[in-house]
Design a protein that fits this description.
The protein is an alpha/beta fold. It has five helices and eleven strands.
Amino acid sequence: MQILLVSATFLEISPFLNNLKINTNNRVFSSHVYKQHTVDVLITGVGASLSSFYLGKHMQKKYDLAVNAGICGSFSRSLALGELVVINHDCFADLGAEDDTRFLSVEELQLPAPYFISNQHVFEHPFLQPIKRVRGATVNTSHGQIASIEAFLQKNTFDTESMEGAAFLFACNQYQIPNVQLRSISNYVEKRNKNAWDIPLAIKTLNNYLTLWFDLF
């Protein structure tokens, strides 16, 4: 298989890379051999803009599978810290305009840009089946203030928040690549309180899962 592994930062997937004895030498893009597979690793940097650039640059190669692996926040308390989720429905949540106290999405403004993104090429694998499917929101500014969170959730029902997911799904749709957006919950979206976050747990859960999953390929 030709596999593309995408993450915003090395921090999020470095234990997995170490488990597979993959050394990227801190490069944005690197190619490796694992068993009989080619695993290309792409570290885009944080945010949809950087992700879009590097995905557009490197996805021209025909991949059998693209995996976006990372951590995310959760709007829902029904998701536990460290829990894994698969996101097949995402959106560019803050792409639009303010109309006094209202937010208007690019869809509502009827501008030629996508807002909601659904995965058109879902990669199916038995090992993924037990993982919850949730709806994600991709933002440029992570929420950390009660009033803005409440206003945000009045328009749509989202489960998670990241800064790259919709860009990944959009790119996979354009290049028709089977894909998985796999994330682990690191914090709840609430008034900013880093003491309540558990990034180490989220990274541990994500990387343990990736190691077990890739061993099945």
